Amino acid sequence: MKKNIYLLGLAGLLGLASCSKKNDSGTTPIVSNGKVDVRGVITASQHWTADKVYRLRGYVYVDNNATLTIDPGTKIVSNKDSAGVLVIYKGSKIMAQGTADKPIVFTSNETDRKPGDLGGLVIVGLATGNENHTVLEGGVDVAHQKFGGTNDADNSGVLQYVRIEYGGKAVNPGDEINGLSMYTVGSGTTVDHIEVVRGLDDAFEFFGGAFNAKYLIAYNCADDDFDMDDGYHGKIQFAVSIKDPTFTDNKGTTGDISNNFEVDNTKDALGYMSTPVTFPVMSNFTAIGPNNASGVSADYGYGMRWRRGAKFILANSIVMGGQKAGMDIDNDPTATYYVNSESGFRNSLLQSYGANYQTDKLTSVALTAATLKSLVETRDGSKSFANATDVGLTDPFNNQAPNLMPKTGSPALNGAAFTGTALSDAFFTKTTYVGAVDPTGTDWTKAGWAVYAR
């Protein structure tokens, strides 16, 4: 069936559209009182401006090498009846360059806003992945399901100062739209200052790709905050994960749990070893779990869940409040990478309500919780604590108004290191402090583009 295209045209076309009263079955965009309904497939470059509000009606695809430019301060909304999803498909670009005082906001159009009113934002590039997933998740149409390529330097555009609120769209168990999904996005793409708020599924999920990012906030999302798989191999610095203790998504009978980090390579059936291997290199994160607060959901899991053949480096970071455990390593290949020092949790601080260290699903690798603790705290220079107060952050568990600034005497005030090839890369700002927030500077998590108490 022919898809209707709802989009802005040139100024003259817009003038005609503003006089139109056609309903959703017509071919003219409905423009009324500065509000524009958008649906279908965009195949020519478009420019969305801050003087209008754009409502996504179902799945909207930017395709055919088109570029969607979105001005600072522009609002893109969705109603719960369609849970709109914006998909920037491979070869096309999004140029969403907000500013600190004029962020671009994707949000609910309902009076009583709830997670799932919006679907989410999906970017699909032409970088490499390992085919752990063969198609996009979340019910996209057949013409836009495939992803992956060969160009790790591919450019899908710019995302700067963008906030995504009340997203998430569950099509089937394990088949959802996240707040921001990045499928094989290349390193030519600019990604910084992104917040995902009160999402129904993962905040950020990265399926393969090599893009780098700075200044990310996941706030009160129901499933995992930083979910990486399919061979994602980029770099990330300065990021925050904060959990609402009472809010997780409906797990059904899947046995799933909600974590601050969940990082995989490939599923069991592929033997965990497909290439490229998932291998994020990360620094200066602060991740806050529920820490057994009153009313905590039984579906909360770990601060960090590393599994299914993933490698990782997480350095100069703070992970607090994991419910079942702080750091969990599953499956033999993942454990082997840690034992061999290919992976590391380095120069960081760890505290958990549950055990700080846990290993699971190992058959041939002798890595116990005790030996993991020794590697982390001896070889990798990290520290663990029994009590959250010993980490010395100002007010990390105040969910409505979190304050992640280190206090006087906090071990987070110093101790960072950027040794080794991966961390010495010019991408990383070389800090002396541990965690996301500079104790001697302005708290970037409190800037006007970021919001809390939602």
UniProtKB/TrEMBL annotation:
Biological source species: Mucilaginibacter corticis
Tree of life domain: Bacteria
PROSITE patterns with a match to the protein in the record: PROKAR_LIPOPROTEIN
Descriptive protein name: T9SS C-terminal target domain-containing protein
